[in-house]
Every structure is written in C-alpha cells, then in structure tokens.
Amino acid sequence: MWRALARTTWRAAANDCGSPGFRFAPSTLTQQQLRHSKASKRYTTNTNTSTAPPHKIRIGIMSVEKPKVVFVLGGPGAGKGTQCSRIVDRFQFTHLSAGDLLREERSREGSEFGNLIEDYIRNGKIVPVEVTCSLLENAMKASGKSRFLIDGFPRNQDNLDGWNRQMSEKVDFQFVLFFDCGEDVCVQRCLGRGQSGSGRTDDNLDSLKKRISTYNNDSLPIIKFFEGAGQVKRIDASPDAEQVYGEVEKILVASGF
Ligand SMILES: Nc1ncnc2c1ncn2[C@@H]1O[C@H](COP(=O)(O)OP(=O)(O)OP(=O)(O)O)[C@@H](O)[C@H]1O
Ligand SMILES: O=c1ccn([C@@H]2O[C@H](COP(=O)(O)O)[C@@H](O)[C@H]2O)c(=O)[nH]1
C-alpha cells in the first residue's frame, strides 16, 4: 500500500510541485524549457518541510516515501545494462540508462540537442548535466514508479553538482553499485557488442579510447567520492554475467530489496 501511495504521490508531486522544471514532457525537451528549468532552481517550492524525515517528502498535509535511487556506475562495457536488466526481472526496479535516454533524445525528430548529443557521444565526452538530468527526471515522473536504477550517471563533477541541485531533495539516494572491470575486458566487450550489431556510433576503437580516458579522468573520481562517503557497493564485473549477477543479488537482498 505504501508503495502504491508513494507511486501515486511521486506522480502527483511531479504534476504539482510548483517548479516549472517539472512541467515539460520528455518528448519535448527544448532549449527554452531548459533555460526555464535552470531559472526555476532559484524559486523552486520546497515541499520537503521540516516535519518530513529525509527519506520522505511532504505534499500538503501528507508525508510520503521519496523514490529510491541506486546509481549504477562502471567503465564502458563493464556490463551495467546487462546486470540492470537482470535486476529488473527479480526486484521492483525501473531501469533508466542515461546513455539510452540521450540516444533517444538524439533521435527524436525536432530535438534541439540531436547534433550536440551525437558529437558528445562519438567523442566520449559528457553531455552537460542540464540535458541529462532533465531527461532523467522526466523519465522518472513518466514511469510513475518509485524505485530506480540510474545507469551511467553521474559521470563527472558537473553531473553530480547538477543532480544535487535538481534532484537530491526529491529522491532517497541509496548507494552506488560499482561494476569494476579492467580496461581491456571493457574494450573487448564493447567491440564485441559493436560487431554483433549494436548500431552504436561509439562502439569502435577510436571512440573507446576517448570513453576510457573520460572514465578514468572524470568518472572514477566520482566513484571515489561516493566510496569515501561509504556509499559504494563494489562488484567484480569480470566474470561471466551469471556469476556477476549472483553477487549483485546478494548485495540487493542484504540491502533490504
Ligand atoms: N559478465 C559479462 N561477461 C561477458 N560479456 C558481458 C558480460 N556482461 C555484459 N557482457 C557483454 O558486454 C557487452 C557490454 O555490456 P553492457 O551493454 O551491459 O555494458 P554497459 O556497462 O552497459 O556498457 P555501456 O556503458 O557502454 O553502455 C554486451 O555485448 C554484453 O552482452
Ligand atoms: O550521463 C551520461 C550518460 C552518457 N553520456 C554519453 O553517452 C555515451 C554513452 O553512454 P553509455 O552509458 O555507455 O550508454 C557516453 O560515452 C557519453 O558520451 C553522457 O554524456 N552522460
């Protein structure tokens, strides 16, 4: 019942939160709406007043559970998406891949960000957080669900700062699932994925060199930051997918999921 209530309320909060940043639909992201969303940070209504504990949000006279969020991080090709699909099959999580959302936005007819996203993806660079975070927030609201695996985000300091500004008060962050995998294995997996017809414009050696370098320089420090805060569950992602999932399952069960 609580889950149902949280679900309803997340949607209600989404539709009713007083922040213009909440009003645009995922299929209609525009520069103007992003500017609006950024400006709204200065006057967003804070619904979480002092009477609600941190994992709850106050909506009118009610306090309800905030949606739970697990960040899923690791190198390119470490197996994040593969493991997220398995987690979704067993646990009540909704999987949101930041990369998938960006690719979708890139392909959306009329998107103002299509060319920018393609350039960032092909060159392994990290798209400005205003775009990614808005896509994530919109997808969360559109799902109406209350438990999320956010895959491949936050990847740098800009991502983390933007998330903290826009989302940290609205969700109940749990921990980072970190899929730790050697560079060579990651590269081989991505090349294999490209050869099996992924159609991704970044599953090639040239893009992979850039992606790995971005991961080492920008993303690993973020994982280390969470580690320092005791918020990382590390998993050796080099064994086969079945074995890796065995470890994931143990962690999620031990964490109460
Ligand atoms: N444990 C594993 N052992 C061998 N191959 C794997 C394993 N996990 C995933 N793969 C394969 O490696 C490729 C990359 O996996 P996946 O897409 O899940 O990685 P990812 O971390 O989500 O990648 P990216 O960050 O690039 O989106 C896929 O072809 C997948 O089938
Ligand atoms: O938060 C994000 C997530 C992804 N990107 C860009 O997309 C590609 C592909 O991401 P995958 O997670 O491998 O699907 C990544 O290399 C970035 O260029 C991003 O900018 N921000």
Attribute tags:
binds the ligand O=c1ccn([C@@H]2O[C@H](COP(=O)(O)O)[C@@H](O)[C@H]2O)c(=O)[nH]1; alpha/beta; binds adenosine-5'-triphosphate; Rossmann fold; two-stranded antiparallel sheet; 257 residues; 7 strands; globular; 51% helix; 15% strand; five-stranded parallel β-sheet
Can you offer a commentary on this structure?
With about 260 residues, the chain is α/β, with parallel strands linked by helices. It has a single domain, classed as Rossmann fold (3-Layer(aba) Sandwich), CATH 3.40.50. It contains ten helices and seven strands. Ligand LLZGTKA7 binds near residues 102, 124, 159 and 202. One of its GO terms (cellular component) is mitochondrion. Keywords: ATP-binding, Cytoplasm, Kinase, Nucleotide-binding, Nucleus, Phosphoprotein, Pyrimidine biosynthesis, Transferase. One of its GO terms (molecular function) is dCMP kinase activity.
